[in-house]
Amino acid sequence: MNISRRNMNRILARALSGSLLFTAALPVTALAQTDDGNQTEDERQIAEETAASLQDGVLEYGELQDMIRLYNPTMEQALSSYNNTLEQYAEARAQLKRGQYSVSTDKEEAEDNGDTEDYAYYASEEAIDKSAAASYQDMYESMQETSSTSSLRQTERQMTVAAQALMISYDTMQLEKETAEKMCQLYEKQYELAQTKQQAGMATQADVLSANEQLLNARASLETIQESQDEIYRSLCLMVGQETDGSLTIAEIPSADVSKIDSYDLESDTQKAIGNNYTLMSERHTSSGGTTSGVNNKKRNVAESEENLKIQMESLYNDILQKKQELEAEKTAYEKAVQEKNLADTKYSLGMMS
Fold first, then answer.
1. Taking Cα atoms as reference points, which of 44, 25, 58, 18 lies closest to residue 247?
2. 241, burial (CB in 10 Å: exposed 0-12, middle 13-18, buried 19+)
3. How many domains does the chain have?
4. 211 in Cβ contact with 194 (< 8 Å)
5. End-to-end CA distance of the chain, in Å?
6. Helix (H) or strand (E) holding 299
7. Are 212 and 191 in contact (CB under 8 A)?
8. Considering the entire predicted model, what is its pTM?
9. 261-295 burial, b if ≥16 CB within 10 A, otherwise e?
10. How do residues 169-192 score in pLDDT, each as one tens digit?
11. Residue 299 falls inside a structural domain
C-alpha cells in the first residue's frame, strides 16, 4: 500500500472537513455573480450600454441602485467576498471530484489485485471525497438562493433609499440656491438704489445701512445653502463610489408621472409587499424550533407583521392620494396666478395700471 498517499488523503479529508464546518457557519450576505457566459448578444449589448451610461459622469436618479450595487465600497467588498467564496466552493468541489476519481481508480486496481485492505481503504476515501464534494455543491447552490442573498439585497435597497433622499435634498437645495442668488441680485440693486437716493438727498444713511444689512444677510443665506449642498454632494458621491472633486454632475430629478397613481391597486400592491418584504421573508425562514409553541409563535409573529405592513401600505396609499389632491390644487392656483399676471401685464402695457 502507498502509505504517503494514504496519509495525504487523510490530511486532505480532515482539512476539508474543518473547512466545511467553518465555511458553513459563515453568514451569506452577498449577491450571486453574474454568469456572463450565459448572456445573449442583446443582453451583453444592454449590459455594455448600461455600464457606459453609469460612467458618463452624470448621475441620474434612475441610476442610483445600479451605481450602489456596482460601485459602493461596502457593496463591492461584500460582493467580492461572496464571489470569492463561490469560487472556493467550486474549486474545492472540483478538487474533491478529481480526488474521488483517482481514489476510485486505486480502488479498482486493489480489487483486481485482490488486496482487500487497500480496497477497503480506498472505498472509504472515495466515500469521504464524494460526501465532501456533495456538501460543497449543496452550499454553492444554497448561497445562490434568494433567501440566502436577502441580507445584501436589503442593504442595497436601504442604501438606494438613502441615496434617493440625498439626491432629492440636493435638488431641493439647488432650487433654494437659485432663489437665494436671485434675492442677492435683488438686494444688490436695492442697495445701489439706496446709495443713489442718498446722494440725491432722497434717502438717509440709515436707509443705506438697512439695505446693506439685507444684502449681507442674503449673501450669508446663500453661503449656508451652498455649504449644505456641497456636503450633500460629497455624501452622495461617496455613496455611489465616485470622486468628490466635482467631476460628477448631479442631474435634475425627473418630474413624477402622476398618471401612474391611477393604476395603483392597494389590495394587489399590499399582497406584493407581503411577498417581498425583507422582514417578513426573514421571519418566514426563522426556525420554529420544531415545537408546537415555536410553530405557533412563528405563525403569530408573521401574522402580526403582515397586519402591520397592511396598515403601513394603507397609510402610504392614502398619503399618496392626499399629495395628489394637493398637487392638483397647487396647479390650479398656479394657473390662476399666471392668468392674473398676464392680465396685469396687458393692463400695464395699455397704460391702464402703473
1. 58
2. middle
3. 3
4. yes
5. 114
6. helix 292-349
7. yes
8. 0.65
9. eeeeeeeeebeebbeebeebbebeeeeeeeeeeee
10. 999 999 999 999 999 999 999 999
11. yes
